[in-house]
Amino acid sequence: MTHDVDVLFAPPQDQDRKPPAPAWPQPLCLHRAFEARAAQAPQAVALRLGAATLSYGELNARANRLARHLRTLGVGPDVLVALCAARSFELLVGMLAILKAGGAYVPLDPAYPSERLQTILADSAPAVLLHDDDGQAALAGQALALPGVHLQHDAGLWAMQAAHPLSVEECSVGPQHLAYVIYTSGSTGQPKGVMVEHRQVLRLFASTQHWFGFGPRDVWALCHSCAFDFSVWEIWGALRYGGELLIVPLDVVRSPRDCYALLCQAGVTVLNQTPSAFALLSDAQADQPQPHRLRWVIFGGEALTPHRLKPWYARSLNTATTLINMYGITETTVHVTWRRLSPADTEANVSPIGERIPDLRLYVLDQHRRPVPDHVEGELYVGGAGVARGYLHRPELTAERFLDSPFVAGDRLYKTGDLVRRQADGSLIYCGRNDFQVKIRGFRIELGEIETALARAAGVAEAVVLAREDVPGDLRLVAYYRGDAQPDALRAHATQALPAYMVPAAYVQLAALPLTPNGKLDRKALPAPDDAACARSAYVAPLGEAETQLAQLWAEVLGLQQVGRFDDFFLLGGHSLLAVTLMARIKAESGVDVPLLAIFQHTTLHAFAVEVARLWHGAQQGSDHLVPVRPGSHAVQLFFVHEGSGTVAYAMDIARHLPPGLPVQALLPLGTFAGETPLYSVPDMACRYVAQIRAAQPAGPYQLAGWCGGGPIAYEMAQQLHAAGQTVSLLAMIDVILPDPEPAASAPPTGPETAARIATLERELALDFILAELPGLPADEVSALAALPDLDTLLAQFLALKSGTAALGEEIDRYRRMVAVYAAISHARQVYRPSPSRVPVQLLATRSSLRECPQPDLGWHALAEGQLTTTILPGDHFSIIQPPHVRQLALVLLQARAAGLARYRQ
Fold it and tell me: What's the CA gap between 624 and 619, in Å, rounded?
């Protein structure tokens, strides 16, 4: 008996052959959908970054003005506009403006190496380049023969343009026009641009809305680079349905603890994550089980291993959250399938990707493009409304991967290269790749692109790259090559040519690459890398107990036999996920909570051991309050004073934008560590801090800076240093309002009156903190908290409300120290009577504060007359220390530092 194979193994008739009914209004574009939401609720928050927000109306008006300016530069339907900017309001304004002008955005990540950025710019040939300071720095030195628009500095060019949207007559862009071109890794060594149209993005949301029910009450988190297509789902999912988009800074994304805390604080309801990133976030939740508001967690970007979700499902605070696995690719507009996960999935040893999005057609075909039966592995082909237009300027590759469908007349299929098998119920199981493309930590990588880049390096005759999992759970790239290049030199070349996620972790030098009997490369015969394969310095044995113990930990985490004293964590193959694992091991074995940022600042074993020892000493003794924020070789250090709540986070944010080599340190207040009593006067604080900075830098000139509550303390330190005969070449007051020179009758630093005042302050500040941490707390619960008899009981009740469980003594003690420090600094500022300044004062003030303060120059002219220099900066009191304004603040601070040193040398 014979059968027609195509009929016998054809996909179900009702699933893949019938064209789905349109689920969205055909003449809609992305920006028009946004404009409709802005018209409905102009005051609603569209974007949030730190403490700053931008409403739908404000975002719409700013984008409209810029769009009209872009029209004057020739931007219109299907015109490409490059967009290179850091995560900020300006990034979203630029993106919207490009679409409103009719163009398509080509996202460029400023973190990419210049060679890759230049390749994408040359291939896409955009008509205009939009950028910010980060983008300008990333593209520095590249000759660009196209108009450039700075999203911040050039705002005056379009400030007078009309704020209402462009009409259809002014810009006749339609759903068939391009919305964006995102570049993915290319197997030939050339990144390829995927062209996606408005209609393909909008139908994605229309066809999945019946599952999710997104709406204006949702808060989305933008965790991914705009050059990664997951960001399309995050950005337009929020703005399409009137939700709020929380912009998560890159440093926060890299720190799972900080990221989880921010998601809880901001009330995020829709979170999109790669499975690897979510596993780390789940681990962070185990250490800080705060309540969250997550409705949906949507996985994508790489294969899901369901058993890794067991810890998440085991926690009761996660029962209201639904986990979804969505398989997809850039060429089919972000997502293709949908699968609601359950605890039962964690017991299966497969990666389920579920059912198709309704307006797509899925085919599982063999090597001859014939359908395979259920439960048989085959390659996935995708047809329907989500298939992209094709590859930019690559007609041959487009013809190879985008095919006319033999099943539905007029349909196009995308050949994914992914292997799947169909279950009896029609759902799919993901089985891997059928070529040399891999996904690592959410990034789709063509190994051929890395091989091509390495082959261009000096001393390399031939190169091959594999993704290996020699350590369970750690998939990493390994390069094999013939030639006389050294691993460290080859890694340096790769770092210059490729994004960080594509740089191999190990480099194996071979006399010849292994071949099969047929003369083809035998990839299975390539050896596992040993210690010599990692770029590293000459081995020097660790010294001392701390270095020896950490060297053993590094070796275990990195899968190496030994680690030397001057080896670099990242050159040994480390990355952010392994860094998180390392911090967890250190905490488990020593009890020291090392911040993730430490390994990025102190990358060698020796430097990292010094930092861990310092943190351990501080935790045990509480005697070291001078925190090295950034090491450097310059003799004149820059000292930041903690702000009013006692933290130094703002100093770390500023330091990231200062040049390498400039040593930066920050002062923590007494009371930070257990067993310490805070100081209650500014002069006492200044006296202690002066002693510490003089121990770190024995002679002047000294350079001091303080923001907010740290300003008066820095001011008093400068006066005490001057009185001791030392030179202060910089006293920078960052948006500091002068304390009242004649405050109300003050209490002495000690005594019953002061103790009562401090106790009252502590309760007031604790209540303020609680209301900020638990927004929406009913009035009766607030009253009940205020009536509690003592601070410890108040804090215990707050922590119980926050976590849903009884608070531990150490948690209460930590919060009590925080409140005590905050109250001590607040009291000290209130009773401080500053004397006239004997050193020049650099006031770096925001326009917002200058408008709100009734005194000129925030009051400093009264004490620093003739010695006051005022620089006005954009932003407000809080946004000045956050992106994007913090970069300009750092630049002005650097200029003031240089001017102070020049005066000193004269």
Answer: 9
Q: How far apart are CA 173 and CA 682, in angstroms?
A: 62
Residue type, 201: V
Q: Residue 731 above 90 pLDDT?
A: yes
pLDDT reported for residue 841: 93
Per-residue pLDDT at 826 = 85
Can you tell me the distance from the alpha carbon of 717 to that of 685, in angstroms, rounded to the nearest whole number?
Answer: 9
Which residue has better confidence, 360 or 824? Answer: 360
Instruction: Please check whether residue 16 lies inside any domain of the structure.
Output: no
pLDDT in tens, 416-458: 999 999 998 999 999 877 766 677 766 667 787 788 788 888 8
Both 418 and 504 in one domain: the answer is: no
Q: Which residue range forms the structural domain that includes residue 360?
A: 199-435
Task: Name the token pair of 552.
Answer: 């053993």
Q: Which of 298, 321, 338 is nearest to 210 (CA)?
A: 338
Least confident of 410-424, 719-733, 872-886: 872-886
Residues 476 and 506 both lie in one domain: yes
**183 domain-assigned:** no
Contact 34, 239 (CB under 8 A): yes
> What residues have CB less than 8 Å from 344, skipping those under 6 apart?
none
| CATH code of the domain in which 81 resides | 3.40.50.980
How far is it, in rounded angstroms, from Cα 197 to Cα 186? 21
Q: Indicate if 333 and 366 belong to the same structural domain.
A: yes
SS3 791: helix
Residues 735 and 657 in one domain: yes
| Reported pTM | 0.60
**Based on the domain organization, do 401 and 415 belong to the same domain?**
yes
Residues 320 and 341 in one domain: yes
Tell me: do 429 and 479 sit in the same domain. no
Q: How far apart are CA 207 and CA 189, in angstroms?
A: 35
Sort 468 into a burial class: Cβ within 10 Å, 0-12 / 13-18 / 19+: middle
Q: Of 216-225, 283-292, 827-836, 847-856, where does the model show the most confidence? A: 216-225
Q: How many domains does the chain have?
A: 6
Mapping DSSP to helix (H, G, I), strand (E, B) and coil, where does residue 56 land? helix
725: alpha, beta or left, given left = phi > 0 and alpha = psi -120 to 50? left
The helix/strand/coil state of 380 is: strand
The reply to whether 427 falls in a domain is yes
Lowest mean pLDDT among 240-254, 459-473, 785-799, 818-832: 785-799
Q: Could you tell me if 711 and 762 lie in one domain?
A: no
Q: Name residue, tokens 């639904």.
A: 322
**Is 886 domain-assigned?**
yes
- H/E stretch holding 416 reads strand 412-422
